[in-house]
């Protein structure tokens, strides 16, 4: 009798454990961290009438967990170089600017709107033999077409070099090694369409006004490139500060996980 009692209770305990684990996983997936913006950022947002609330939230599942998985750890430890194109067009009737953005398939910033972009590759057989990487501009052409289907070499009516950010630890929280990033601004005619492909769930033309007002959050530090493409826009500069504070807070959470997994922490 006592043996049956023990077996029954073990089964109940097992079901309870399974239910508790499921509830924990569900809670973890739904959990978000609210960031407290700095006094300077609050003042800047108020003065320029910018909503920064979307930049003040971090998802434990899509931001922290996916930034610390084994797939990303395999790329860690070497100086990575990436490039991001800002692709814009103007609405003929109103002159309003639209930016081509993608929704990411993977975290961090999964399902968030971002600029297309990716790591620099080898452009020719000679580059592969010599170990040279393609130029930032070539990466922008390639990644832009891979993720949005826009052939920038064919359609761009203007191309502007936005410069390079060298060896920063404040751009991509997936890696403890430094990342260098190049940016270019391409303007295309209004009749150019886009479609999400490769690492992009969706590609869509988004009003610049929706970005600058904070209705649309840009992942990573991508407001920086948009602000470089439109240097007179003060609202975009505010959003770059908001994105930077998001990255700093996310970096702290990622470093906690890195430490528990015995991985090197990301430098401040």
Tell me the CATH superfamily: Nucleoside Triphosphate Pyrophosphohydrolase
Second CATH tier, the architecture: Alpha-Beta Complex
The class by helix and strand makeup works out as alpha+beta
The top level CATH class name: Alpha Beta
- CATH topology assignment: Nucleoside Triphosphate Pyrophosphohydrolase
Major sheet attributes: 7 strands, mixed
Short recap of the structure:
By secondary structure, the protein is of the alpha+beta class. The protein has helices at 2-30, 39-48, 60-67, 70-73, 125-130, 136-148, 152-155, 208-212, 223-229, 234-260, and strands spanning 32-34, 57-59, 80-90, 97-104, 113-114, 118-119, 158-168, 179-187, 200-207. Helix 2 (39-48) runs antiparallel to helix 10 (234-260) and helix 3 crosses helix 10 (234-260).
């Amino acid at each position: 009798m006592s043996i049956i009692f023990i077996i029954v209770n073990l089964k109940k305990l097992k079901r309870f454990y399974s239910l508790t684990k499921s509830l924990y996983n569900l809670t973890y997936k739904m959990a978000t961290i609210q960031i407290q913006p700095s006094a300077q950022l609050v003042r800047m947002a108020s003065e320029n009438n910018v909503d920064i609330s979307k930049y003040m939230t971090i998802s434990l599942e899509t931001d922290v967990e996916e930034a610390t998985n084994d797939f990303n750890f395999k790329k860690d430890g070497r100086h990575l170089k990436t490039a991001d194109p800002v692709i814009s067009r103007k609405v003929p009737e109103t002159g309003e600017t639209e930016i081509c953005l993608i929704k990411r398939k993977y975290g961090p910033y999964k399902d968030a709107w971002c600029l297309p972009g990716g790591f620099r590759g080898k452009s020719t057989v000679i580059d592969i033999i010599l170990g040279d990487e393609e130029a930032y501009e070539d990466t922008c052409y390639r990644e832009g077409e891979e993720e949005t289907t826009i052939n920038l070499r064919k359609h761009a009516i203007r191309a502007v070099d936005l410069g390079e950010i060298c060896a920063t630890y404040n751009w991509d929280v997936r890696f403890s090694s430094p990342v260098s990033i190049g940016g270019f601004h391409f303007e295309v005619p209004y009749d150019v369409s886009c479609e999400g492909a490769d690492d992009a769930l969706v590609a869509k033309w988004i009003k610049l006004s929706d970005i600058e007002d904070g209705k649309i959050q840009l992942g990573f530090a991508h407001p920086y490139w948009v602000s470089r493409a439109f240097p007179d826009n003060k609202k975009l500069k505010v959003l770059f500060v908001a994105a930077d504070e998001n990255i700093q807070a996310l970096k702290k959470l990622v470093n906690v996980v890195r430490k528990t997994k015995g991985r090197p922490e990301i430098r401040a």
